[in-house]
Design brief:
single chain, globular, disordered N terminus, mainly alpha
Length: 114
């Protein structure tokens, strides 16, 4: 099953995406080996240009697969709803995912300053 549309032989993220991967060595982020990381980071924090790059780089099936397996647990509600809509996820399923996402316990928000 073809998961990526290979734009060129370079399998590393382009330089304009480096700011999204500040805690990594961005020149070593491989779009094949680190696909879930790349997809997650761009879906959650990406600019319009990075979102367009994501859609050109990964197939719709790959992006939907990410949403179903991991994205629905890690993406913020707004971003989850957008990407699920773009992936053709039914309104009922999107609503369920977004509701579950909003009900997640915010570990950082639940902490009290001492």
């Amino acid at each position: 099953m073809r998961q990526l549309n290979r734009l060129n032989e370079n399998s590393y993220i382009p330089e304009f995406l480096f700011p999204l991967f500040w805690e990594y060595e961005p020149e070593s982020v491989d779009i094949f080996k680190h696909a879930d990381l790349v997809i997650s980071r761009i879906m959650a924090r990406g600019t319009w240009a990075s979102m367009l790059w994501l859609r050109k780089t990964y197939s719709k099936n790959r992006l939907v697969s990410f949403l179903e397996k991991r994205g629905r647990r890690v993406l913020p509600p707004r971003e989850l709803n957008y990407w699920a809509f773009m992936g053709g996820i039914s309104a009922e399923k999107r609503e369920k995912w977004v509701k579950e996402s909003r009900e997640k316990v915010d570990v950082w928000g639940a902490k009290h300053a001492h």
